[in-house]
Amino acid sequence: MISFSQLEKMVRGDAALRRRQVLQPIGGPGDKIFPPTYPADRRDAPPQHVYEVRKIDGTEIWCVLLDSVQSQANRMEEALLTAVREEGIRIPHLIVDFKDHGIFGLSEITSLDAPHRVYDAIMRDSLVDGKPFMQSEIGIRLAQAKPDDASALLELSPTALLFGAWHSTGGGGGLGARFARCLVSEIMAIDVPVELGSARGQQNDTRQGANALPLRRDIDSEVRTAGRRTGSRMDPLGIQRKVEVFKTDDGSWDVSKDGAGKGAKQVRPSEINHGNIAPTVAPLGITCDHAEHTFVLSFAAMRRLRFGSRDRDAFGRTLIAALGLLALAEQDLRGYSLRSRCDLVPHGLAPLEVVHPDGTADIVEVDLDSARHVYEEAFEAAQKAGFNLATDPVRLAPQDKLVYLVKESQRLALSGKGGEAEDEK
C-alpha cells in the first residue's frame, strides 16, 4: 500500500494520480438511470439532460453527464465531513453555529458544505469573538491569502486548496485570490442512445451510441434522450376537473369566489393538488453501455502553491495530496447513490495510477485504511514543519441580520409567499 514517503516523492516530481472506474446501474447493465436535468436553452422547452459527443477509441460517441465536477467536489466534501464527525479525522474547517437561534432544521453550516467554501457569504456574515468575520484576524489572513503564500488556507480550510476557491468579494471588485482546483472528478454515461431533431422538435434521426451517424453541426439541431419517463396520478377522492374551485395568488382557495377572497380566480382542482393527473410522457432517463468515473489529482497544480520555504512547500503540498486520496477513499466507502433512480456500482475495481512526467504510468495500491493512515502522517508532518493546523473547528456565530434573513425566508416559504429563485423569471 502507498506510504507517506512514496506520496511525498510523487508530489515532488510526478504529474498526477488518476483513476478511470467503470460503473454500471445497480439494477444491472442496460437498466434505465436518470441523470440530472438542467434548464433548456429555450424558455418554453422542458428541462433536459446534458449531452456531449466525446471521441473514444477514435469514434465519436454520445455521452451524458451524470455527476459534474462541482457536484463531485460537494460529494467528496460531504464524505470528508462524515469522516470528521464519525471517525474523528482531523481536517481543519470552520463552523457557523445556528443551534441557539431557533431556526427550524438548521444547526450548523461548515466550510465543507458551504457553496463557496471558506469564502462563502455565510462565513462573511458571521462573527468571530463578536467581530465580523472578514475583520477578524482569521478573516484578514484568509483575505490576504494568495497562491504564493497559501498557508492560511492550509491551516484553516485545506479543502479550499484541494477543490478550488475564489474570494469573489475580495478587494478590486471581485478580483480576490483564486485558487485553482487540484482535484477533478466527474461521472459520465458512455454510449447513450439519443434522438436528434430540429430546434422546433421535428425528429431528424435517431443515434444509437457508437453506431451514430456523423454528428450534425448545424445550430438548429436539438438532442434529447431516446428514453422516456411516464407520470400520472389517480385521486382516491375521485374529484372531477369540472368542479368549480377559486384560488388566490397567496395559494388559499375555496369553492366560491367570495370564500376564497379578493382577487381569486377559477382554477382546475389539479392546481390546488386535488383530482387526477393525466398520464404524461417526457423525454427523460437514459440507458448506456456503461458509466465512467474519472478522478485526477494533479501534482502539477499543487506545485503552483507555496507556503514560505522549500520544506513547508513539500509538506503542505503532500498534505493536500493526502487529503485528495482520503476524499476518494471516503467517497468509495459510501458508494454511488447520485440521486433518485441513479444508483451505480463499480464494474470491477480499477486501480489508481501515478502518471510520471513522461506520460507513462504505474499502478499504486490505495485502500481506505492506507488513505487514512497516510493522511494522518501528512498532518503530523505538516505540524512539525511549522503549520499551525486547526485541530478543532473554528466556530463562528451568525450575525443577527443573517439569522433574520433565514427565519424570514422560512416564514415566507411555509406561508407559500416565498417567491421564485433568483435565476427564475
Notes on the protein architecture:
By secondary structure, this protein is α+β, with helices and mostly antiparallel strands. Among the domains are: 18-87 and 170-228 and 284-309 and 327-364, no CATH class; 234-282, no CATH class. The protein has 12 helices and 24 strands. It has helices at residues 4-13, 69-87, 121-124, 137-144, 151-156, 159-163, 171-174, 257-260, 299-302, 310-334, 368-384, 400-414, and strands spanning 16-25, 51-56, 59-67, 94-97, 108-110, 126-128, 131-132, 165-166, 178-179, 183-190, 193-198, 203-208, 221-225, 229-233, 245-247, 253-254, 265-267, 277-282, 290-298, 336-339, 342-346, 352-355, 361-364, 394-398. The strands form 6 sheets. Strands 1, 2, 3, 10, 19, 20, 21, 22 and 23 form a 9-stranded antiparallel beta sheet that branches. It has a 5-stranded mixed beta sheet with strand order 5-4-24-6-7. A 3-stranded antiparallel beta sheet has the order 12-11-13, with no helix packed on it. Helix 10 packs antiparallel against helix 11 (368-384). The chain is globular. The termini are far apart. Residues 199-220 have low confidence and may be disordered.
